[in-house]
Amino acid sequence: MKFDKASTGNEGLDQAINYLRIGDNVVWQVDRLEDYMEYANAYVRNSLAENRNVIYMRFAVHEPIVKDNDAIKIYTLDPSIGFESFTIEVHRIIEKEGLEAFYVFDCLSNLLESWATDLMIGNFFQVTCPYLFQMETIAYFGIIRGNHSFETIARIRETTQLLLDLYNIEETRYIHPLKVWNRYSTTMFLPHIETKKELVPVTSSAESARLFSFLPQTGLGNSKRNLDYWDKLFMEAEEVLDKEPRDSNKEKAMVEQFCKLIIGKEKKVLDLAKRYFDLEDILAIKSRLIGSGFIGGKTVGMLLARQVLKKDTQSQWQDLLEEHDSFYIGSDVFYTYLVQNGWWHLRQKQRTQEGYFEAGAILEQNMKEGVFPETVKEQFMQMLEYYGQSPIIVRSSSLLEDSFGNAFAGKYESVFCVNQGSPLERYKQFEEAVRSVYVSSMNQHALEYRRKRGLDQRDEQMAILVQRVSGDYYKKYFFPFLAGVGFSYNSYVWNEQINPKEGMIRLVLGLGTKAVDRVEGDYPRVASLDQPMLQPIGNDEDMKKYSQHTVDVLNLVENAFQNVSLNQLMWEKPGLKMDLIGVLDHETNKRIKAYNIKEQEAWLLNYEKLFKETDFIPIMKNMLQQLEKAYTYPVDVEFTVNYIGEDRLKINLVQCRPLQTKGVIGEVEVPQDIDKESVVLSTKGHFMGGSIDQVIKRIIYIEPKAYSALSTQEKYGLSQFIGKLNQKIKDKESMPVMLVAPGRIGSSSPSLGLPINFSQISNMSILCETAYEIMGMVPDLSYGSHFFQDLVEADIFYIAVFPNHKHTIFNNNYFENATNELIDIIPEASKYEKVLKVIDTRNDFIIKGDLKAQNLIGYTSSR
């Protein structure tokens, strides 16, 4: 039955506040939980007497607020699952119970034990209170006075309908209504003293003075009152460190507590953190933390790796490593950004099956325009004042990122801020970069990745790592001398002399973007750490073609990230140690001289002197081995290399994460006596993913010549149909499929290969890139790039075929003569029947490859 008013169960309180109203959220601020319990139980007794639907939300470790009663529905919740999951569960219950329900919540202050931050309690109340109001409920909440910052209390006051201060002074209780929405009387906002029968307004100056003389002890006069509970925890840690003698057991316990609050939830990572971080390290992290909450996987990996090397007393890492200079934006800031911009309902919808992509797309657009709380903006400004005009990079560091099993390689944004201009201009650039990272948490590729890996219902909070860009000024440019990625295990060996356990690196001149991305027409230097001079491409002509031709830099004059040609950079004579990483390109220099171009010289980057005459390779090898030993798991790292003075090498370790690898399935005997007519493809090296012995049931083949004749639009259309074929693969085990395509699969340039995104090939078992050099379509041996990390995580085997190379066979006739099943599977794809062929092998196509011998063969068999 619809009602407008309800009783609190206390006649005096009813008179003081003019009864409860539909939609009221009532917050009791108390010194003792027992006082909240008494008023909550009076409200419950009266509600049950009126046959109301009474619900008790039980989530704290304190004594139950409501006495046992079979007529009350009790929901037991676990706040340790995190703010988002906890809040979604509360809202689910509210939706289930429907209109006109009466609620009692445990003391909100106890959520601090799990969340440790007032910010998230404020967020919880700010999104839950309006929903309760919308559902026409009445709800009671308790908070402990003095446990929360002024800012949190202000947010609660702003959101709730009633805020009541309840004091217990010398066994006399006073109730002081601070906010009573939509009601007023001449005495309503005076303190009221509780008597046996009523609440009497305190009107005399003597009684008021007695009451308010108590307030400075716990209220305005207490300097700690303005601090977040989060800050109080860290103040306590500082006090522990200042005490002599130091209590090692207490320090250890505090490290464990803080690791759960800022490092994460994954047991393997927590165990490593507790092993390598001490209390001073934790406080050092806090000193550079903006907001509160978790610092995210990327930040944890970077800090943890540095601690591992720092504790390695056998090597001089203190002299070799460049100190990091980073700040961290806590994950709570991300949630607060959503809550205070009014998008929490979208976030909830996005966590449902039906709204996963649809609400995600709306959030992706909305987050581009949001505003940050003033307290956060002030911290942003202070950080930017610290960096001055030094370039910085704003990097994603989500909770699930860089963890054991989920790398999220390239799924979220990293944004360079060249950081030039006025303070206001630099601030706007930075704030936009933070928004871009937040927005990337909702991009379709990230959402598909999470769903594919069963992470779509996991909390994915976005923390951010802000790093000073490692490098130096080279005239108008800023960049590191070298940058790259390193792997302690080499899944991508290309020669039988290489030991995969020795690791590998991808190295570039300039910013490291080219080391992690597949870049059209540009190739990082790939080196196995046991055979660094042994390159994947054999002859001199290939080495020149498959080398780095452009350099990523930050242009300080243009205030922009730029990609400049190596020749242009050399023309500007930036003062690089070119003789250490390259040799003069004599053939090109002859042409330059013939055109009478002065003060210009061309270089070919081969890194021969760096590898042969410096300690760089042994240093990288040692670093990766030490990190793998600590992780008891292969790792991959991102790093930069700079030189101070003439010969002092400094390495900046900017990222470390567990490396997902495809293991060798054991020795595979590659048959040597197969009839040549049965061989479809054969190659020496140029495959990745361990050894393989696989029966292929379906081949998706793109005819190179017909593909090259398509328009750009038609090539994109072709990719859509391949995506549909990919969707029809329900189980890779029962339906292994190989995609054979000319040039680069996943190319951003349709003229160089297939413009397809990873989600459209994610169910394939094998990708085979074939060279069609007459049209410029050549496989991209981007060992270790984000693209190939995706292949490893999706358990996709990779083959590159160069038909004109020695030791390579590619039988075009097999593909051309095979029956095309495309129209039977996708009738609407008839336009592409001459380009796209779907071959049912009838279990008569086998791929065998031996990692150690670097032999691979695909052949037909009459099994």
UniProtKB/TrEMBL annotation:
This is Pyruvate phosphate dikinase-like enzyme. The keyword Kinase applies. Keywords: Kinase, Pyruvate, Transferase. It holds the Pfam family PPDK_N. The keyword Kinase applies. InterPro entries: ATP_grasp_subdomain_1, PEP_Utilizing_Enz, PPDK_AMP/ATP-bd. Coiled coil: none annotated. One of its GO terms (molecular function) is kinase activity. It comes from the Bacteria. SUPFAM superfamilies: Glutathione synthetase ATP-binding domain-like. Residues 295-674 form the Pyruvate phosphate dikinase AMP/ATP-binding domain.
